[in-house]
Design a protein that fits this description.
The protein is 41% helix and 17% strand. With 349 residues, it is of the alpha+beta class. It has 2 domains: 137 residues, no CATH class; 151 residues, Alpha-Beta Plaits (2-Layer Sandwich), CATH 3.30.70. The chain has a 5-stranded antiparallel sheet. The structure holds zinc ion.
């Protein structure tokens, strides 16, 4: 049904041979030329109806992915083609097949729990991950920074290199910066988050690193020089003090796993695959210099525990079917569900 992915190691850890792997990757998927997107688009669109599996998913899944249908269809194709690990692939394919609607006996509040894949590349699951991480980071900032945190953004020079290579270079450059005397003196510890954007006009990936650095004042000019040395030429960096009340965690968590907007680009599927493979097994949230760990949080999508005020009121697949046949009760429950913004209902982007 799906063309099988070539057996390539695209994790970015293969050192010098990675460029060769990438050549093979583009040769295989894009007819040898990344820029020739016309041929790329047709070569990727040759397996007919199965290319758009959204319609084949069960009602609960269609409900889960209702705001991101095309991204979900693309994600399913990427899973089929690129994910060799069957259990990981199936987890992604089955994300949301079984969902239970719970209601709070005291507040009448409604929530869903189900077999979500929780992958940061999943177009539905990344929303709840982001919300969780925003809460965690916010708490971390409250606990472990006082009046001594700075927000640093480090950018790499523009490059045509594949995403995995750029990410590896960014991570290695940041490691080198941390060994620089200026950084060692100025920064006690911190957290870093990688953001990835894609420039459609230049057809280039742009990873940046956003950092919460706890420590003392570092002049921007000196940091810029140190970063240019560490990154092999990019002087682009920004440093500013974090003030109380800054919504820095919200801002940062937006980048965690948010896929770049590539949906509408004609070679979006190859880019989606590249993105998926580059992020697989890679840390996007970096702790450094013995930074205290993030506080643990219960997952918002875990089924409610026994004994609390939540009770299961139905299976989402059944409720959706009942609504089709005119059940008022199903209609009411489902409207309550869509009224609330929660970890399970990705807001429309
Ligand atoms: Zn998912």
């Amino acid at each position: 049904m799906f063309q099988k992915a070539p057996q390539l190691n695209l994790s970015g850890k293969a050192g010098g041979s990675l460029a060769r792997y990438y050549e093979e990757f583009y040769e295989f998927w894009l007819g040898g030329n990344r820029i020739k997107t016309e041929t790329a688009a047709t070569s990727l669109d040759d397996s007919g109806k199965t290319e758009h599996p959204y319609g084949q998913e069960n009602p609960a899944q269609r409900y889960r992915f209702r705001y991101c249908q095309s991204a979900r269809a693309q994600y399913v194709r990427v899973l089929h083609r690129a994910e060799e690990d069957l259990s990981r692939r199936n987890k992604g394919l089955q994300c949301g097949t079984q969902q239970v609607v719970y209601q709070n006996l005291t507040t009448s509040e409604i929530r869903l729990a189900g077999n979500y894949c929780e992958a940061r590349t999943c177009p539905a699951c990344y929303h709840s991950r982001q919300r969780q991480q925003a809460i965690q980071l916010d708490e971390w900032i409250r606990l472990y920074t006082r009046n001594d945190a700075r927000f640093v953004t480090l950018t790499m020079a523009s490059s045509d290199e594949p995403l995995a290579m750029q990410l590896t270079e960014l991570q290695q450059s940041f490691k080198r910066l941390r060994r620089h005397v200026l950084w060692k003196k100025g920064v006690k510890y911190g957290k870093g988050i990688i953001e990835i954007t894609y420039n459609q006009d230049r057809r280039q990936w742009h990873p940046h690193l956003h950092i919460i650095a706890v420590g003392s004042y570092i002049p921007q000019g000196k940091l810029s020089n140190a970063w240019a040395t560490a990154s092999g030429g990019s002087p682009v960096c920004d440093i500013r003090k974090i003030k109380q009340g800054d919504k820095i965690a919200n801002y940062l968590s937006k980048y965690l796993g948010k896929p770049p907007s590539i949906d509408s680009i004609d070679d979006s599927e190859a880019l989606g695959m590249e993105y998926y493979l580059a992020l697989r097994n890679r840390r996007m949230l970096i702790s450094f210099a013995g930074a205290p760990a993030l506080p643990p949080l219960p997952k918002s999508e875990d089924p409610p525990e026994e004994g609390d005020q939540w009770t299961a009121v139905g299976n989402l697949n059944d409720l959706l079917k009942d609504r089709e046949t005119g059940s008022l009760e199903a209609e009411t429950l489902l409207s309550l569900l869509s009224d609330r913004i929660n970890g399970n209902d990705p807001p429309p982007d």
